[in-house]
Amino acid sequence: MSYSIPATMVSPMLVIYLLDISASMANATNRTSRIEELNMGLKKTVIRMIHRSTKGASISPRYKIAMIAYNDKAFDLLNGVMTIKELTALGLPEFVPNGKTNTALAFELAEKLLEKELPEMTSCPPPLVCHITDGEYTGEDPEPIVNRIMNMAVPDGNVLVQNIFISDNIIKADVSDISHWSGISSVSELSNEYAKKLYAMSSKLPESYRRTINEMGFNLESNVRMMIPAIDSAILNLGFAMSGSTPFYSLK
Fold first, then answer.
1. Tell me, what's the pLDDT at 233?
2. With a threshold of 0.90, does the pTM exceed it?
3. What CATH number is associated with residue 66?
């Protein structure tokens, strides 16, 4: 499987964001709260997608977006899928953290959405599910659902699952210079047990994605997992950049 089909208006890329809005997301980081870090990272990613999709004053629908927020329950924020142009007109939601962390419900909702969308995506890039969380699930184990999702496929490749873990003391390596960080290629690099769980629930980063990300000034190696230990805003920004890094043709 090549992961080589570019995101275009006739072959749009579907990205499903699963957003943990449980009470712990109100906890402070070095400069703000975890929920604000999520809000800022999501905004930057949508702006990047808009930039990739814009020629002159026209926004091409080369990205399709779904957003599922969850705590004790899972909420389909966009009532299905929107094009990046439609999302631009609507604007991004604001989140108020509360409740627990029922991660399985969010992935179940993503699975249902994929079952609906995949039959129409046979000539498109494989969809990507980007999960952002700060703590261990409180409901059922989501891993069996994630495994089913990662076994879904379009001709160009399997559905990708990415995990961004916003927390401290996750990784053993020094990542003070994110431009030289090589990524996570072994569970032994992680010091947090839930981070290791998320590693098992993360796809391998396709080579085409790796090249696109490294063109932004990063230095990820081959065969890393799509698991981001977001111990600061710089690594969080890398994680969000990864979610939209499918191959694309410039419109400029």
1. 83
2. yes
3. 3.40.50.410
How many domains would you assign to the chain? 1
Tokens at 77, concatenated: 């924020």
The answer on pLDDT for 53 being more than 90 is no
- Residue 189: which domain range? 13-243
Pairwise CA distance, residues 191 & 89, whole Å: 42
Q: Is residue 252 one of the residues assigned to a domain?
A: no
For residue 8, tell me if it sits in a domain.
Answer: no
Angle formed at CA 154 by CA 38 and CA 1, multiple of 5 degrees: 95
Report yes or no on 215 lying in a domain: yes
Instruction: Tell me how far apart the alpha carbons of residues 18 and 160 are, in angstroms, rounded to a whole number.
Output: 13
In a domain, 3, yes or no: no
Q: Is the pLDDT of residue 1 over 80?
A: no
% of the chain with per-residue pLDDT over 90: 64
pLDDT tens digits for 67-126? 999 999 999 999 999 999 899 889 888 888 999 999 999 999 999 999 999 999 999 999
DSSP for the chain reads ----PPB-SSSPEEEEEEEE-SGGGGSB-SSSBHHHHHHHHHHHHHHHHHHHHEETTEEP--EEEEEEEESSSEEETTSS-EEHHHHHHH--------S---HHHHHHHHHHHHHHHGGG-TTSPPPEEEEEESS--SSS--HHHHHHHHH-EETTEEPEEEEEEE-SS-BSS--SSGGG------GGGB-SHHHHHHHHTSPBPPHHHHHHHHTTT--PPTT-BSEEEESSHHHHHHHHHHHT-S-B----
Per-residue pLDDT tens digits for 192-204: 999 999 999 999 9
